[in-house]
Write a structure and sequence with these properties.
The chain is mostly helical. It is built from 6 helices and no strands.
């Protein structure tokens, strides 16, 4: 049985595993390519974001809504993108972790996807 998400190393594993799949996905990869996506600089930002949500470590500085609105202006983000993002996220969490924090990671991602779709 998998352990729960308990520390920054777990968040790093989750984010790295997730984005390895995202950048190879036939639906999501083109969005990132069109944005000239820099994975090396994006990963620490996402680790910081999810550490704040799941571990109450607040180092993230940014406005995810604004960033996605800018992305949407050059490459429309559709419900299919958010559905695939959520599907990959949930599968990644479930493959690596089990427990209350893992469940929270999936629940919060669903909320984030709904908010993003509503704001775009």
């Amino acid at each position: 049985m998998n352990k729960d998400i308990v520390n920054s190393a777990d968040i790093n594993l989750l984010i790295n595993t997730f984005y390895t799949q995202v950048i190879q996905d036939e639906i999501l990869a083109p969005v990132f390519i069109k944005q000239n996506f820099d994975l090396a600089s994006h990963l620490p930002v996402m680790v910081s974001f999810w550490e704040g949500i799941l571990l109450n470590v607040h180092t993230y500085k940014g406005n995810p809504i604004k960033i996605h609105q800018q992305m949407n202006a050059t490459s429309p983000l559709l419900s299919i993108h958010f559905e695939r993002w959520l599907s990959i996220w949930s599968a990644t969490v479930d493959s690596l972790f089990a427990g209350p924090k893992a469940e929270e990671a999936v629940k919060r991602a669903k909320t984030i996807a709904m908010i993003m779709m509503a704001k775009l």
